[in-house]
Specification:
With about 400 residues, the protein is α/β, with parallel strands linked by helices. It has helices at about 20-30, 45-50, 90-105, 115-130, 140-145, 150-165, 170-180, 205-215, 235-240, 260-265, 285-290, 305-310, 325-330, 340-355, 355-375, 375-409; strands at about 1-5, 35-40, 40-45, 65, 70-75, 75-80, 110-115, 135-140, 165-170, 185-190, 220-225, 250-255, 275, 295, 315-320. About 45% of the residues lie in helices and about 15% in strands. The strands form three sheets. Strands 4-5-2-1-7-8-9-10 form an eight-stranded mixed β-sheet, sandwiched between helices. The chain has a five-stranded parallel β-sheet with strand order 13-12-11-14-15, with helices on both faces. It has a two-stranded parallel ribbon with strand order 3-6. The radius of gyration is 22 Å and the shape is globular.
Length: about 400
């Protein structure tokens, strides 16, 4: 079966961490014999805007990139800064996809779109043009955040979710939210991770040597934060919490972003607060294994892959009660903290330090939960079943059209 994968984020040679969860799922699908073609439309702002603001300049991404045997096309579409807040570019994105399909003579059985906005809106138009069935996966922000930006955003969200042939959500909480917001039933299928690359080995226990190898403070306890350095990830609350934590604990941020300069101005910078910068995806495991606590104090999340990875390595975790995170924690969702709360961060770290036996048991339970529910290969098999249903639906529709045509003659 051939699937056209439409998404607004996908890893590239320049930015291998951008939407890495997509590539994880694509790898799992191709291992099961599914032929995937990815179209990842890229916004291009007007030339005067690109000259005025450096961050709006065109990303240096190739039109066609082959990654792990999969063709990834990146056509550009005309964009306006901040447009997701007041105007949806679904028609312009759809136009760029349609031009690519025609230019490359790409064939597909159905479409799998990711995020209701803006990719889902564009996929709806492409599916109608080609008379192909399509499946939509909801990831979190496309349900909880984007629809509230404007009436236009809410209208596109409703239309898109209701018109998809199948809707999947990456977690139980998100599926319930979609029912409440759009009245559309969803099937929860998490993306998961490649568990074979996150195995615990004997060497995993050698934290001191690992810290030394990564140039981290080897005689300190490390609280690790991985993600884009933006305020929405709770990075500043974590920095504010640091002075109230025991002296032997330091905070290490892995990632890059506009919050970097503000963090560098912190009094404890390069003393108890350290910035590693962006790292390759294959190094995430090493930093997790070198840490003593992993924290993700975000204001919002979908289903954060890095939390699943930390659980798979039995790293003690502190997270905020947002998005799909409660799905990951299951019966331990009561241990989640509130976003934007320095006090909650301090309290939870101190609780974790004070009761290691309890939190070791929690870590073990979460490890078992990840292996039971968040294998990328196992969940890809569930997705393939949905794909087969769509393929059969496409075949049935073709037979019905042919029958009507024969009767008309």
């Amino acid at each position: 079966m051939k699937v056209l994968w439409i998404t607004s984020v996908y890893p590239s040679a320049e930015n291998p961490g951008n939407g890495v969860f997509h590539e994880t799922q694509v790898k799992a699908l191709t291992s099961l014999g599914v032929e995937v073609t990815v179209i990842n439309p890229i916004p291009l702002n007007a030339s005067i805007i690109r000259i005025w603001k450096k961050r709006y300049r065109k990303k240096k991404l190739p039109y066609l990139e082959k990654r792990n045997g999969v063709n990834v096309y990146r056509p550009v579409y005309r964009a306006i800064p901040g447009q997701l807040r007041w105007f949806q570019p679904d028609k312009r994105i759809a136009e760029s996809i349609l031009k690519t399909l025609k230019k490359e003579t790409l064939n597909f059985d159905f479409i799998h779109a990711h995020f209701a906005m803006p990719s889902g809106g564009a996929a709806r138009i492409v599916a109608a043009t080609y008379q192909k069935p399509w499946l939509l996966t909801l990831h979190g922000s496309d349900v909880h955040i984007y629809p509230s930006f404007s009436q236009s955003a809410e209208r596109i969200f409703q239309k898109t979710v209701k018109s998809a042939d199948e809707v999947i959500a990456v977690g139980e909480h998100l599926a319930k939210a979609a029912v409440l917001k759009a009245g559309r039933e969803c099937t929860p299928i998490p993306i998961g991770i490649d568990l074979s690359t996150f195995k615990i080995t004997e060497n995993s226990l050698l934290k001191t040597k690992r810290k030394e190898k990564l140039a981290l403070p080897k005689n300190k306890k490390i609280i690790l934060s991985i993600g884009r350095l933006v305020k929405e990830k709770g990075i500043f609350e974590l920095a504010e919490a640091l002075p109230y934590l025991p002296e032997e604990y330091v905070v290490v941020y892995v990632g890059d972003g506009p919050g970097k300069e503000k963090l560098q101005r912190q009094e404890m910078y390069n003393d108890r607060l350290f910035l590693v910068g962006q790292i390759p995806n294959d190094k995430v495991r090493e930093y997790l294994l070198a840490s003593d606590i992993f924290i993700l104090p975000s204001y919002s999340e979908g289903l954060p892959t890095v939390v699943i990875e930390a659980m798979a390595l039995k790293i003690p975790i502190i997270c905020t009660n947002v998005g799909g995170v409660p799905d990951l924690f299951g019966e331990y969702a009561n241990l989640l903290i509130q976003p934007r709360s320095v006090q909650d961060i301090v309290a939870r770290v101190k609780e974790l330090i004070a009761d290691p036996v309890f939190y070791e048991a929690v870590t073990e339970e979460l490890y078992q939960r990840v292996h039971a529910n968040y294998s990328a290969v196992d969940n890809a098999n569930k997705l393939v079943e949905k794909y087969r249903e769509l393929t059969n639906k496409s075949i049935d529709s073709t037979h019905e059209i042919n029958h009507i045509w024969e009767e008309a003659k």
